[in-house]
Fold:
Amino acid sequence: GGRAHDVRHAAHTLAGLSANFGCLRLAEVARAVNDAHGDSATLGSLLPVLDAVLAETNLLITTTETVRSGF
Structure:
């Protein structure tokens, strides 16, 4: 369906971009979401993990940028 395709496409894109930027844990979880796009039970367990890893990655990036800029 359309929603499953959207989830798979977004997860695939996120996995590739994350890997390119060296965010390997985020890439790993996004790949798992991509692989489970048709399994609602697995997606239900992976999406909170993806959300947490995204938050951790964002915090690391924000903290690194703050330290680099001297603020």
Notes: The longest helix spans residues 40-69. The radius of gyration is 14 Å. The CA atoms of residues 7 and 28 lie 15 Å apart.
